[in-house]
Amino acid sequence: MPFSHSFFSSLFSPPPLPPSPSLALAGSNKMSPLSSWCLLLTWLCVVHTHGLTEPKIQEKAFLKALGLSSRPQPSNPRPVPSELWRIFQREWAESGAGAGLCRVSEYGVEGNIIRVLPNLGDCVPGPELEPTPPVCVDEWLYFNLSVLEEVEELTLAQLEVRFQHHSYPAPGSKGASYTLSIHKVLGTGLRGMELSRKLLISQSFQPVHLALLFNLTEAAASWRGGGRNLGLTLQVAGEEAGQMGGEGTEVGAEAGADVGVDVGAELGAWVRVGAAVDVGGGRCAELAQGLKVTLVVVTLNRQQCRASRRRRSVFSLPAVFSHVCQRRRLYLQFRDVGWQHWVIAPQGYMANYCYGECPFPLSDRLNGTNHAILQTLVHSNHPTDTPQPCCVPIRLSPISMLYYDNNDNVVLRHYDDMVVDECGCR
């Protein structure tokens, strides 16, 4: 019998769970097929029928599969970047299509997990940098890559430098030019001594509501590979107006330090900064105040990538209720289990479930295996000794989830085996 939303809203209303301490969970997240869907459905069921202990165990197992040590409790939720919303909407529209299960077309790389990491340079101890003219900005950048799981392969680390600039040059005039330099910090040195750092990028630009995009995948990979993460430094120095050449200068001290500029075009449309880019002037102090830096990290968890599948079929209820094994409607709301504070989107989804008998003889539409066919035959002759085969999911499809992790980072994750598409007798 199909279950309505109101039924599940009343059935799955758990008491609030006490905050769990952040625990570092070791080991990989290897999960058998159907595990994701089964864990979530089991958690929903036991919340109502048991006390707190067993639901907490089931919930923790599912959270671990999402790379979370405990239920996130965002204290200062950050706004979701617009590019993540666009990617989420595109992936949600393509859910179950099987195309690009583990590829992020917007960035042109493999991946099924996207994180936007904030600059923590103001929050953790680091070198004290004082800009001196003509340097407008001399800022230490630090990004916490320890939030990545060991099983994740780093495929992209893109530094996004955005400017909130509101001055425009007069038509035909040339605005002020700046030089942006990014160094990798190699050592902090002694007090009063200069930092030991390596130049990665040097780029001339003129800010007019633009974002400079820098591919720092190799630098980030070195930090994950055992190198000490001492962060980066970002310098912006003023130039005389009109001194910018026809081509921006790029110095790639490390391979892969690509440079791009986002001027409002579709995300991932990388172009060289040059004379063709619209330019504008601005004051040094104004530029420093409006600076925002984030690191977009794309990773791939191959354990959650499998072969492509057919597009998810549209759910249709049978005209007459049947006791035979088939897919049944089940809509899950994250609010029902108290997850609405950290799951950003979707608020719920059609998970479905399998229910019904596997009678003898098994028809083709029951998708029975040879073993199931023989088991029904034995059951028909000895019903008390041998049970019928079980009605179970035999084909599932993924969904995308947008949520806050245990460090208040915004994460977009493409997660497999979350929707029952087809049932069968096994």
From TrEMBL:
It is found in: Secreted. Residues 309-426 form the TGF-beta family profile domain. GO terms for cellular component: extracellular space. SMART domains: TGFB (SM00204). The keyword Disulfide bond applies. Its main location: secreted. InterPro entries: Cystine-knot_cytokine, TGF-b_C, TGF-beta-rel, TGFb_CS. Keywords: Disulfide bond, Glycoprotein, Growth factor, Secreted, Signal. CDD domains: TGF_beta_GDF1_3_like. It comes from the Eukaryota. PANTHER family: CVG1 PROTEIN, TGF-BETA FAMILY. This is Growth differentiation factor 3. It comes from Callorhinchus milii (Ghost shark).
